[in-house]
Amino acid sequence: MGSGSLGVSLALATALGVAVVPARAEPSSVEMMRLLGPRARTAFGPPGEASLGAIVRLPSGVLGASVGLRDIAPGFARLRGSPSAILSFADAHPTWPVEVSPPLHLLLDAAGAYVGATAAQAAGHTGAGALVGIADTGVDVTHPDFLVGGKSRIAWLLDLSAPPLGLHPDLESRYGTTADDGTVLAGAVWSKADLDAVLASGDPTTLPQDQVGHGTLVAACAAGQDAVYQGVAPGAGILVARVSGQSDSIATDDVLRGVEFLYDMADAMGQPIAVNLSIGTDFGPHDGSLDWEQALATHVGAAYPGHALVVAAGNSGSIADVPIHQNVYVPAGATVRVPFLTSAASGNGNISVWVAMHAGADISVGLDTSGGTWLPAVPPGASGSIEGPGFEATGAVDNDTAVAPAYATSGPQGAVAMMQGAWPAGTYFITLVGSGTADLYIQGLGDVGYQGAVAFVNGVREGTINIPATHPDILSVGCTINKQSWTSIGGARYGLHQLKLDSVGGRLMTPPASSIPYTPDEIPIEGEPCWFSSAGPNLDGVPKPEIMAPGAAIAGALSAQAPPTSDDSIFAASCDNPDGGAPDPQCLLVDPTHGVALGTSFSSPLVAGAAAVLFAENPALTQAQIVAALQGGAHRLRGSAPYFDDDQSGPGELDVVGALAAVDRLGDAELTLPVRSASWVTLGSSVFLADGSTPLAAIVELRAAAAPGMPAMPAGGFSDDRVGLYVSVDGVAQPQAATIRRRGPGVWMGKVMLPAGLGGSTLTVGATFDGAEIVDPKSIPIATDVWNGDYAPSVRGGCFVAAVGAKSRWSALVVGLAWALSLVFRRRARTPDKAGE
User: Fold this and answer.
1) What dihedral do alpha carbons 217, 222, 224, 230 form, nearest 10°?
2) Which of 583, 615, 641 shows the shortest CA–CA distance to 461?
3) Taking a C-beta distance cutoff of 8 angstroms, is the pair 401, 427 a contact?
4) For residue 707, what is the DSSP state?
5) Are 365 and 378 in contact (CB under 8 A)?
6) Stretch among 565-579, 680-694, 719-733 having the lowest mean pLDDT
7) Strands 131-136 and 147-148, bridge-based pairing
8) C-alpha gyration radius of the chain
9) Residue 28 in 3-state DSSP?
């Protein structure tokens, strides 16, 4: 970060007793640790851990081992210690970026038929010869889905929640949690032989546990063996890394060590592996530029054939339930107060807001309470902190994150705002002063870490993909509805319900003007995107997720250590009995060893299992080839995509049979011509931003005519110049605005860039084959922000702006302009109802 003039903000800050200083030349996480002082440990670490993990970006040619660090990937090393130790290292190496991230959280039968897994297995494609890696809450190793003849299917297991066993000291030293003197504090390593020996003894109490049940169900979706609830790759081997304790708070350092263990052990076994992460966070720049994201991505790529990394897209898409993302345009000279709601915190509350600024933005960032200014707006290049007015909390802002723009189109300048400590429930504000466009992401941890405890008053669905799924080289997976209802172990029938939503996913508060009877909720349609599934693109316009797969409701293995009676279990629920009587505490159980859950957490391992099936066919496939095959074999969404408009949800839904066909065609020049009736285009965004800062991605799926009873095969074998992408604005062709390239069999990637200043126009994108239309074109608005794109504004009386079609929603933003008094109403109500986890 560079130093900056504090100007008026410094004068105001001094008058209020605020600590505001020019930002240091170091990453914002280190500066934020300084600003939070003694509250830094609880802000950046899971509860109960005395030390923190950090990622150090190394100078060219330097090894971490030369300065006492653990090398984890080319250019990256791991540092672990107390906050003071991390700050001391940063002071000793002021030009080395040091990144400390807040903890991550979990992204909480019929599916096999929907994704073609049943048909693939019937043809012998079970994933045998490949591995599935699960980094999660652990696995119940005694579950019958992971046993064959009483012996374990798990080849290796790392448990970072348990003390070392001493059976594999070299591995425990390398991947375990160590003290400053090198003593291994946690990280038990089990081989298959170790597990089998204990299983044979008849005393399973010393075996690894999964008290949450999340990892057990994730593993079952990918590779479980059961006559009814079969995983996608039941023949694959399994590797496990338990990276959490008995909570959903997970350190990024633990994730990195767990993933490294999975890839290293697979390499030692000489087998390809698809690693699944159903873990993520809403806090960060959402462009793939965080160091820990890039460290994860170093495990895959052209140099690492046989490695795939699959990550859940996240459950942050329901802006009617929990809005975590806001897109804001700040007019020149304006002050915009972005409201968010929070529950009370008793002393261990942590709210983190990432403010990602688009190219050309010049925005100061502050914090307000409902009573007025708390931390005056901090200008770019500076940071500041202050104690709460009348409550025990520190508010801090570091304005200029200086994140390395490895994948950014224009440089990801931004700010971080945090609240740490105790505060009363109520409405608080992020204050933006200046000009330009910004995206804000909010996350609560600690006392406010449960769903719905922290959220913007309003939000936008677009761009809600969780980190690390935002990284361009990581395969992210969204969720589709596969089962509207299920029968519990007690014989009662339960079903899914979602709030009545408008066309872009906001909660519909009053009956629409139609003859259709209005109800406050509705039953989701099989095949449509899950209402909670996070939507793309990432903030650089990269289309996300890469693929969709069933995730609501999924039935699979129930960990014996996570019964519904346990508060830690994902199956802990009490549903109203549809037949009357007392609530049913076992409503999520379908038999004694299987339960039902929903979330992208369980969509992702279906795709990881599919990747293992593809590896079994060709162990030399790279991550890019896996993505190309999955997209080339995908089928259109089976549902209507009511508020995705088929976009922001990837090019289609997982189809294992189609993906196998695409793999066969990766090196096949056989001519297969596309037909319009079977081909389609998806756009990466629902709105093109009028500032011209973000490209629009288009994915063109070309399919051949399908034989009777067979899926449409990916088209290919022809010259690339036969496919074109065209763009028009208000009907006027823009021949220089679009490019297109072939990704793989049946898949073409397009990119659209337009100059700034076209707000209020309509952008249309289509594709041609030999000059003729090959897909139905799509149109989206060009607007200053997503709000104006979703709800086109109308001007009434000069100073009053209201959103057309915004039905009884709360005001989205409070905007004070220097040149006029205006109030912007773009209304969506939020609700504390739970969904998606």
Assistant:
1) 100
2) 641
3) no
4) P
5) yes
6) 565-579
7) unpaired
8) 26
9) helix
CB atoms within 10 A of CB 424: 14
pLDDT category, 779, cuts 50, 70, 90?
Answer: very high
Give the SS3 label for residue 616: helix
Phi and psi torsions of 439, nearest 5°: -115, 135
CB burial of 385-415 (b: ≥16 within 10 Å; e: otherwise) equals bbbbeeeebbbbbbbbbbbbebbbbeebbbb
784 three-state secondary structure: coil
Q: Residue 828 half-sphere exposure, CB side, CA atoms within 13 Å?
A: 30
Find the range with the poorest average confidence among 274-278, 470-474, 528-532, 770-774. Answer: 528-532
Is 118 in a helix, a strand, or coil? helix
DSSP state of 23: P
**CA pseudo-torsion sign 690, 691, 694, 695:** positive
Q: Which helix (H) or strand (E) holds 708?
A: none
- Report how far apart, in Å, the C-alpha atoms of 487 and of each of 118, 189, 217, 224, 258 are: 22, 39, 18, 21, 36
Q: Which two tokens stand for residue 831?
A: 């609700």
Distance (Å, rounded) from C-alpha 752 to C-alpha 696? 5
Nearest 5°: CA angle at 283, between 598 and 320?
50
Please list, in sequence order, all residues whose beta carbon lies within 8 angstroms of the beta carbon of residue 68, skipping any fewer than 6 positions away: none
Length of the chain: 837
**Burial status of residue 255 (CB atoms within 10 A of its CB: 0-12, 13-18, 19 or more):** buried
Spatial contact of 144 and 226, defined as CB atoms under 8 Å apart: yes
With H, G, I as helix, E, B as strand and everything else as coil, classify residue 580. Answer: coil
Structure tokens at 351: 């709210």
- Cβ atoms within 10 Å, residue 151: 13
Which has more pLDDT, 796 or 138?
Answer: 138
